[in-house]
Every structure is written in structure tokens, then in C-alpha cells.
Design brief:
Strand content: 5-15%
Low-confidence stretches: none
Mean pLDDT: 97
Largest sheet: 7 strands, antiparallel
Number of strands: 11
Structural class: alpha+beta
Oligomer: single chain
Number of helices: 13
Distance between the termini: 30 Å
Number of domains: 1
CATH class: Alpha Beta
Order of helices and strands: EHEEHEHEHHEEHHEEHHEEHHHH
Length: 361
């Protein structure tokens, strides 16, 4: 079982030729990674996407060092064969019908189940796992954490384009991955046993073949005994990546420390806030599901930081508040993409998504 507040992170990368178009190089990467790092990487749904997976880290500093190592590992192998990695929640121009699926049992199952819609998932995210030592706490904390899903997405939005279109959204990844079933915000769960019963019934009715085919925005991980945050777009900036990880770790600790367990919320308020986070700027108004008050997204983000501030201090991560404030002032990585595109078009944007990937913090 995981120790309390340990960290594990998955990042999904675009594999690009020198123009920034997607290229099928996942097999090349996997064939050329040193054996001692093989476990730190995995395939995703398509061959133009690659995933890194950190080991279990006790603190944010060590986790960021490992993320840097894994990014550099992929970069160096890619450069040896004249391709690069890019980072964005979606590729801005790639066509879904031009992608090649990975051939393995897990992804063949997705393709068989979702058919046409399985091909629409050219998306790239960051998943953060925070360990807890009690299975019932996984559920109790997840229930309460749903309040913060929208502000987390708002801070991390990084996918305004899809298939050559300005979608008008800041996180089109949220919509594209939302075509899959079981990708929504989870409903209130009464206990870990109820969660197990749900999984058991899903398997018996052939809704899923394994627990990890529940793809909620946040989920208690059935195998790892972690809470997995799945709502955020992947970030080029390591400072932004550090911010996301530090916030979610501190949110989990704050809920446990304060015994803020099992909050139930109006589900419509949760989903409306998620929609606003994916589509609108920080001035948009939402309903805080905790107290039903109308607040701006900026106010909700500041409330989230105030809520977990003591835990940020406890972990020695108060510096990430500066990153939050920078994003609130200057915009997200989605806003940066839109600025580059509006000035220079897709050609320079695709190169920007490669050239601005940060490899060292």
C-alpha cells in the first residue's frame, strides 16, 4: 500500500517531425530506451504518442528531478533519429483519421468498444497520483476533492486547437476525451466497498474488462492505492507542472488533516464549473459547489490556494503560489498558443510547441 502523500506522475508527449507534425515513433523510442529505464515509459493509444511514468517519490523536489530526467531521455533518443517531442493537450492540426493505433490487448479493447470514437482521442494529459494508506480514505477524500476539479483544469488549460480548427475552447482535450464513456466527474461514492461493487458489476456486464477502464477526471486507483488526478492538460513548463503536482498533494493532505471527508455537492454545479474551466477565462462566474455562492474562476482558484496553503508550507512548496499568480496575471499555456497562432499561424505554432518544452527546472 502507498505511503501517505507520496507522488507519482504520468506525462503524455507528442512525437513530432521537424515541422511539428505527428510521426509514428513510439516503437523506436521503446526499442532504444535503456533497460534500466524501460519501466518508466509506456505506449499510449496511438504510435505518435508516448508516456513517461515516474517512480514513487516522497517529495515534489525529487519528483521534478525525475520528470526532468524522463523528458531528457525521450528528447535525446528522439534527436538521434531526427524527431522531437512536443507538448500540448491536443495536437493543433493532426487529423484523427491519419493515426495508427498501438497493437496490444488494452488498446485493441478500446478500439473494439468505441470504434469510430476511439480514433478521436489525439489528447495529451498529465496524471498525478497521490498515495494514501487507507482505502476508505481514498473514497472520502475523492468525494471532497471534486470541488477543486474545475480550478485545476482552468490553471492547466493547454489545448485550444483540434484538427486545424480554433475550437473556441481553452481545453479542447476535455471535450475530445469526453467522447469516451466514464470520463466524467465521479458521482458521490459511499464507501470503498461501493466502489468495488461498481467495478464488479461493470466487469460482469462487460462494461469494462479491468478497473483502469474507468477514466474519471479524478479516481481512486484500484491497484496503486492512490488518488489519481486526470483532469489537467499536460504542460510545457516545468514550473507549471510543479505547480499542479504541489497543489494536488497539498489538497489531499489538507482534507485528511481537517477531516473534511465525504462532501457531497450539487452535480450540476460541478459539471457547469468544469465546462467553464475548459471554455472561459478566469473572469467567468461559477457556483462554488461547497457553499453555492457565485464566484469568479479567479476567486475559486485563490480559494483553493488559501485552503491548502498550510499544507503547501508543510511540504516546503509555498513557492508554487508565485506560479499560480503568474498564470492568473499572464494566462495559461492555452492563451500562449492562441497568441502565437494569431500572430504567426499553425506553422510557427507547431514549432513553438516543440521549442518551448522545458527539460530542466
Amino acid at each position: 500500500m502507498s505511503n501517505n502523500y507520496t507522488i507519482g506522475v504520468e506525462e503524455e508527449y507528442m512525437l513530432c517531425d521537424n515541422t511539428g507534425d505527428l510521426i509514428n515513433k513510439a516503437n523506436f523510442l521503446m526499442d532504444n530506451i535503456d533497460d534500466n529505464l524501460k519501466d518508466r515509459f509506456s505506449y499510449e493509444l496511438i504510435l505518435s504518442e508516448f508516456e513517461s511514468n515516474t517512480s514513487i517519490n516522497d517529495n515534489l523536489s525529487d519528483c521534478m528531478k525525475e520528470i526532468s530526467l524522463l523528458r531528457n531521455t525521450v528528447k535525446n533518443i528522439a534527436l538521434s533519429d531526427n524527431f522531437r517531442i512536443g507538448i500540448s493537450g491536443t495536437h493543433p492540426t493532426a487529423r484523427t483519421d491519419n493515426q495508427t493505433f498501438v497493437e496490444n490487448d488494452s488498446y485493441n479493447w478500446v478500439s473494439d468498444e468505441l470504434k469510430y470514437y476511439a480514433t478521436k482521442n489525439i489528447t495529451f494529459s498529465i496524471h498525478v497520483h497521490i498515495g494514501l494508506d487507507d482505502k476508505d480514505k481514498l473514497i472520502k477524500v475523492t468525494n471532497t476533492l471534486r470541488r477543486w476539479i474545475a480550478p485545476l483544469l482552468a490553471l492547466s488549460a493547454n489545448s485550444p486547437f483540434f484538427e486545424g480548427q480554433d475550437t473556441g475552447m481553452l481545453s479542447s482535450r476535455t471535450f475530445q476525451f469526453g467522447l469516451f464513456p466514464r470520463t466524467e466527474i465521479p458521482s458521490f461514492l459511499k464507501s470503498y466497498k461501493d466502489y468495488e461493487d461498481l467495478i464488479d458489476k461493470y466487469i460482469k456486464t462487460e462494461t469494462i474488462s479491468k478497473p483502469r477502464q474507468i477514466w474519471w477526471k479524478i479516481r481512486p486507483h484500484y491497484e496503486f492505492n492512490t488518488i489519481e488526478f486526470r483532469v489537467c492538460d499536460v504542460q510545457r513548463s516545468l514550473k507549471n507542472t510543479q505547480m499542479i503536482i504541489g497543489i494536488v498533494q497539498s489538497l489531499v493532505r489538507t482534507i485528511v488533516k481537517n477531516n473534511d471527508y465525504d462532501f457531497d455537492y450539487c452535480y450540476e454545479h460541478l459539471t457547469d464549473a468544469l465546462w467553464k474551466a475548459s471554455a472561459k477565462d478566469f473572469s467567468t462566474n461559477i457556483i462554488d459547489p461547497y457553499n453555492n455562492k457565485i464566484v469568479s474562476m479567479k476567486e475559486m482558484i485563490n480559494t483553493m490556494i488559501l485552503y491548502c496553503k498550510d499544507s503547501l508550507e508543510y511540504f516546503g512548496n509555498s513557492h508554487i503560489i508565485n506560479t499560480v499568480n503568474e498564470i492568473l496575471k499572464n494566462g495559461t499555456e492555452a492563451n500562449m498558443q492562441l497568441s502565437i497562432y494569431n500572430k504567426h499561424g499553425f506553422k510557427k505554432l507547431k514549432k513553438y510547441l516543440m521549442s518551448t518544452v522545458e527539460y530542466n527546472l
